[in-house]
Amino acid sequence: MNRMRSHWAWGYEDKFPSDDTRRAMARRFAAAFGQAPDILPLPSLEAAKIPEPRFAPTPELRAMGTTDQHERAIHTYGRGYPDVVRGFYGDFAAAPDWVFYPTSEEKIVLLYRFCEKESIALVPFGGGTSVVGGVECAAHGRFRGVACVDLSRMAKVLEVDETSRAALIQAGATGPEIAKQLDRYGFALRHYPQSFEFSTLGGWIATRAGGHYATVYTHIDDFVESVKMVTPAGVFETRPVPASGAGPSPERFVLGSEGAFGIITEAWIRVQPKPRWRASASVHFDIFERGVEVARLLAQSGLYPVNCRLLDAGEAMLHQVDDQGRVVLLLGFESADHPVQWPMARALAIATDLGGCCIDEPKYTSDGDTAAIEHSAASASAWKQAFFDAPYLGSALVSMGIMCDTFETACTWDRFRAMHEAIVKSVSDVLHKELGGGFVTCRFTHVYPDGPAPYYTFVARAKPGTELEAWAAVKAAASDAIITHGGTTTHHHAVGRVHRATWEKERPPLFEKVLLTAKHELDPIGILNPGCLLAESR
Amino acid sequence: MNRMRSHWAWGYEDKFPSDDTRRAMARRFAAAFGQAPDILPLPSLEAAKIPEPRFAPTPELRAMGTTDQHERAIHTYGRGYPDVVRGFYGDFAAAPDWVFYPTSEEKIVLLYRFCEKESIALVPFGGGTSVVGGVECAAHGRFRGVACVDLSRMAKVLEVDETSRAALIQAGATGPEIAKQLDRYGFALRHYPQSFEFSTLGGWIATRAGGHYATVYTHIDDFVESVKMVTPAGVFETRPVPASGAGPSPERFVLGSEGAFGIITEAWIRVQPKPRWRASASVHFDIFERGVEVARLLAQSGLYPVNCRLLDAGEAMLHQVDDQGRVVLLLGFESADHPVQWPMARALAIATDLGGCCIDEPKYTSDGDTAAIEHSAASASAWKQAFFDAPYLGSALVSMGIMCDTFETACTWDRFRAMHEAIVKSVSDVLHKELGGGFVTCRFTHVYPDGPAPYYTFVARAKPGTELEAWAAVKAAASDAIITHGGTTTHHHAVGRVHRATWEKERPPLFEKVLLTAKHELDPIGILNPGCLLAESR
Question: Which of B431, B380, B383, B426 is nearest to B405 (CA)?
Fold first, then answer.
């Protein structure tokens, strides 16, 4: 039973917020915006403008492809704000002509040969949850059309090495598909990006996704033991070893390649036993700076909290974690080997020494301790629910004329304050100038000994017809502030097409040359995801 | 006051083992070999065969260079067994014609232009401690000569960011030079490869050196926040951020580049406060397999021991940690934030549950606790001393006609047993066939959730005149066993020239193509370290 994915909005159609929910959201936002936003009618697929396919594949390819309108619509964009806005307005001008579902590496190679011969751009597609234009490809210039390669039929856990705690997993497997298959072995990947429900292992690797762990194992990079990528020039397969010092890392060359070099088909991934002990606590601060200082000390403590999520007052309010205007630090520890009272106690001592206030007792749970699990920290649960629902709400907001999007970065601790102030100021200024108001909130998603990964959400009333321009102005202001103040283009949202110009200011120019020559070596005709990560070749 | 480095052996001349020490060593080995090895006379620089320089640099370069025989001799080789053997016999045929000591990036560029124009191979030189032929370059083919670039005059800590715990350090700084300069700020790098006394930050980055921490932060890779590399095509400089998800990592492209792409001149490095609490213990096992199992559980425990060094019986005996034929696991925890009794107690519980025996009480020390520090675990200290002295002893053994060398790898836990047995068998077989006897020992230097990094030492009586061939036969047997059984070419000794053929069996062929095109982009004339890491271009 296939649940239907929305052709324009985040996720499953049946999970899209009801009219009642939208009305409740409108009431919440009425206070912030002076008046309640409208509840607009939802768009239909029938009204969507989807161009006719521009090419006809060979019979062999046709057998694994489709031109179904709904399929083409859901494969047109990622799910960033401009994607959802265009979908909402029925603009699917960039729809791929065909969507293909290969079931083997051989079939991917068939696609390569066809696209090379026929000048078709080929876009690898995992969950389609990119917020940086990673899967959107308007065919122009030398391309006659666009083919989308959806990896969803290569979604198996092929092998599990229980001794080494590693699993060979096909790249098209989504978060829940991986969870279900690993569960039989008592393992979990414990990589939970916000897109978990739909995004895939291959997509995570291609975009260097950020996950569950706030410290140490922050990116999917840290779980990749080896990777296999099928390129137009052949197979690029690395050896599954726990670590190596032999030359530059071949895995790290594939990680972050965003479909420009090849299609990732499978990987040996380090997996985790399920945690048996958990601890969670929330600490409140009166001022954000104090919370920042505590997050820094925790990141530098060697305690390795699994959760160290600092929410500024706006973020805590927005996600209904706190309604009293306080800064909140959500702390968590987990282990499959030992109880975690001790590190939590030490972490709370660090936090309270600097003025943090622990309203409730920290919650400790262990396997089989049902009462404790049911009683688990209320604010942490509220956070979790809000976290996975946020993208659904984001799409619902679009249908209420509200602009809501996020961006993120990482910078060293010494630079954070100036960068943060510049971001908040310049984004607020643009929101006021373009849209007459709005707000921006901040949380830390991951923390490192040398700096935080701050994550920003901005919300404003959109002006119908100017959404894309206003959003572009906000993004430009945010990216400028980030780059000027020493942040990185992205901590885990990837480069895609949206961040390409920003990334060009960050990366060494010689590294761009290296990547372009690598691209030419692996994808000599230049069919793969043109314009994503790297400038389109002529 | 410059202490003199031996022109042929490891380290400082004044630290070379005395005749008395060599006699004591001979007595120890007499038992193993049936007869005491000879104490051969040490070679003199005067007797060394060093060819005349083949080119004359420009006056500007001449001012920063030398043709001094001693300097040329110490810059000829690394310090692997075949290097020391050739030095012992006075064979310096591969000596660089000139050794240059640039003091700035501009001077490095001058060298590039000269070498490109005059067809001179250019070899970057840090501490000269390579054991894989990383700094040895016989000029042949299109090259008229060889210039060595010694980075030792670029050795300053330029900036310290105490908030983010990061320091900008010039690449020529050695371990002790970095320690001394960081000490003023209360920081340490806590990266202690065996070559610590001489090797440099740039060398560590170029070769992905392994260090102090047995878990999590095992390689220098984990401490590199950003890196600056001067290439013949220009400067390649990355942005100092705690983490990024923007495209493939540019730092990881430089890490492991072994001087083939450019010369690393400086890097922002994550530094550590000095530990205030330490714990150490040694656990004994009757059989190696049991120790392996415990090491695996500890690596998978999330306790993150800083030391988790498993020594087989031979290794424990060789390093005088145990003289009763037992397997020894040396365990350590340290922290600048909190006492470490708790993780040590849990680690010991894991070890003793599986039959480990803790002879002494674990030792806990904390700042100012002088008595406890003085009383610190005897076997751990014995280990430390032996660790840093081992390379001196290795050179002394050469002067006694004994072959002693090491090699290392990493593999997944499920593959370890078969690989280990194959390595021990094939190396022993070769030692017996070529030299009539000898032994091989094993320890784990680093452990990962998915596998160990085993490190092997082999010792045998050499036959004068056949040392290089016999050594090559042992290395070939070891490398074959490693590659056949799923290990990596090297965990932290790098590829250099010695491991190039082995690495070619491990790396994806397409990755080699990528690296070769990258090399051509960054070093278009191909002057940099030809034959190291990558095959020499024509």
Answer: B431
Q: Which two tokens stand for residue A137?
A: 């490809």
B230: left (phi over 0), alpha (psi -120 to 50) or beta: beta
- CB-based contacts of B389: which residues, under 8 Å, 6+ apart? none
What CA–CA distance (Å, rounded) separates B538 from B521?
15
The string of pLDDT tens digits covering residues A382-426 is 667 677 888 999 999 999 999 999 999 999 999 999 999 999 999
Residue A436 to residues A29, A38, A395, B97, Cα–Cα distance (Å) = 15, 17, 22, 71
Closest approach of chain A CAs to the CA of B403, in angstroms? 25
How far apart, in Å, do the first and last CA atoms of chain B sit? 44
Task: Examine the pLDDT at A433 and tell me if it is beyond 70.
Answer: yes
The yes-or-no verdict on residue B538 having pLDDT over 60 is no
3-state secondary structure B435-492: HCCCEEEEEEEEEECCEEEEEEEEEEECCCCCHHHHHHHHHHHHHHHHHHCCCCCCCC
- Pick from B19, B93, B12, B83: which is nearest to B52 by CA? B93
Contacts of A503 in chain B (CB under 8 A): 246-247
Contact B298, B346 (CB under 8 A): no
Q: How many CB atoms lie within 10 A of CB A387?
A: 15
Has residue B256 got a pLDDT over 80?
A: yes
Q: Which of A168, A204, A244 should be substituted to probe chain B, the one whose Cβ sees the most B Cβ atoms within 10 Å? A: A244
User: What is the β-pairing status of strands A277-285 and A357-358?
Assistant: antiparallel
Cβ contact (<8 Å) for B245 and A494? yes
Cβ–Cβ of B163/A296 closer than 8 Å?
yes
Q: How large is the ipTM? A: 0.96
Interchain pair A245, B207: CB under 8 A: yes
Mutation target among A412, A502, A504 for the B interface, most CBs of B within 10 A: A412
Per-residue pLDDT tens over the stretch A272-288: 999 999 999 999 999 99
Beta carbons of B488 and A244 less than 8 Å apart: yes
Beta bridge partners of B403: B460
Q: CB pairs below 8 Å between A and B: how many?
A: 291
Contacts of A342 in chain B (CB under 8 A): 342
B226: amino acid identity, one letter = S
CA of B343 to nearest chain A CA: how many angstroms apart?
A: 9
Q: In Å, how far is A526's CA from the nearest CA of chain B?
A: 15
Cβ of B216 and A219 within 8 Å? no
Name which of B246, B304, B451 is nearest A488 (Cβ-Cβ).
B246
- Nearest Cα to B490, choosing from B84, B212, B209? B209
End-to-end CA distance of chain A: 44
d(CA A400, CA A38): 5
On chain A, the residues whose CB falls within 8 A of the CB of B347 are none
Chain B neighbors of A210, CB-CB under 8 A: 245
Could you give the CA distance from residue B172 to residue B128 in angstroms, rounded to a whole number?
11
CA–CA distance, B227 with A442 (Å, rounded to integer): 29
Question: Is there a contact between A497 and A531 (Cβ–Cβ < 8 Å)?
Answer: yes
Residue B96 has pLDDT above 70, yes or no: yes
> Which residues does chain B have within 8 Å of residue A218's beta carbon, measured at their own beta carbons?
243
Provide the β-strand partners of residue A150. A125
CA B28 to chain centre: 26
Nearest CA in chain B to A488: B244
- C-alpha closest to that of B119 among B534, B530, B490: B530
Which phi and psi angles does A157 have, rounded to 5°? -80, 110
Least Cα distance to B181 among B204, B157, B162, B202 occurs for B157
Q: Taking CA atoms, what residue in A is nearest to B333?
A: A302
Q: How confident is the model over B463-473, as pLDDT tens digits? A: 999 999 999 99
Query: How far is residue A310's CA from residue A37's CA, in Å, rounded to a whole number?
Result: 29
At B383, list the tokens: 């280990």
- For the record, the structure tokens of A204 come out as 């995570």
